[in-house]
Amino acid sequence: MFDVNEATERLALLRDWFSGFTRSFSFTNEDDQRNISLKIKHTHEVCKNIRQIATGETTDGSKVLTAETIGLLHDIGRFPQYARFRTFDDRISVNHGELGADIISTEGLLRDFPGDEQEVITYAVRFHNAFSIPPTADSRKGFFLRLVRDADKLDIWRVFIEYYSGPRAERASAAAIGLPELDGYSDEVLYHLQRRQVVPLSKVKSLNDYKLLQLSWIYDLHFKSSYRLLLERAYIERITAHLPRTDEIRKLSESLKEFALSKGSRTPSSEQ
């Protein structure tokens, strides 16, 4: 039988572990430390997001706590990734989702959790950054994986809006994965968006392309609550404000808002 006090205590212990784990990746170099601090804050914001989405989609307190545990652990692979490679680009370093799942195992982080919960949490961490939901995800795994993917996207939008808006000297250097800041954007990237497709990272050639890729994630949100948060935070307008002011971008912004509004007004997905 689920014990909310035990589950809450397990999560509190994991928060303590996370604080100690991330402190071990402190740097004297200001730029390196800014990149680490970025991921610490990101993790805490994802925890807030996933709790909001989960409580909007289920009344089961045990599922909300499981979701928040996944949010806390989803990016633990980022810290050793950066320490070793000085990048957050999985393409030229390691898959941080797989690394995070390996850390969960080697550190025995979930040893006090029920077996089925251990499996769901580890699975969600391993695949939260996959291009799409793997076919191996059953209904329960898929539910939690969709939760963390939505929560992650919602905060990545915040991170990059702050990146685009802030002074260049204060930007976390690893955030934009070394993309050139060109004036235009690729027709091929826009083509995917116009067809309501998620843009593959392989098609991205510039920072503007990357902004469009991030907007394409709107087509890969899964919950009514996620679309509501997207609209409440005006992320579409705030990202497109940093793109060229063309008729194509204006029409795209309008189309994305219409899509998000239609999704946000639908009946929530069935909880698993």
Report on this model:
The chain is mainly α and 272 residues long. It folds into two domains: 149 residues, Orthogonal Bundle (Hypothetical protein af1432); 86 residues, no CATH class. Helices cover 63% and strands 0% of the residues. The longest helix is centred in the first third of the chain and has 28 residues. The C terminus is likely disordered.
Q: What attributes does this structure have?
A:
single chain, 272 residues, mainly alpha, Hypothetical protein af1432, 12 helices, globular
What is the mean predicted local confidence, pLDDT?
A: 93
For the record, the CATH class of the largest domain is Mainly Alpha
- Distance from first to last alpha carbon: 17 Å
Strand content: under 5%
Taken from the alpha-carbon principal axes, the silhouette is: globular
CATH architecture of the largest domain: Orthogonal Bundle
Largest sheet: none
The CATH topology of the largest domain is Hypothetical protein af1432
Number of helices: 12
Radius of gyration: 19 Å
Element layout with pairings:
Layout: H1 4-23, H2 30-57, H3 61-73, H4 78-85, H5 96-107, H6 115-127, H7 139-165, H8 187-194, H9 207-216, H10 224-232, H11 235-240, H12 247-264
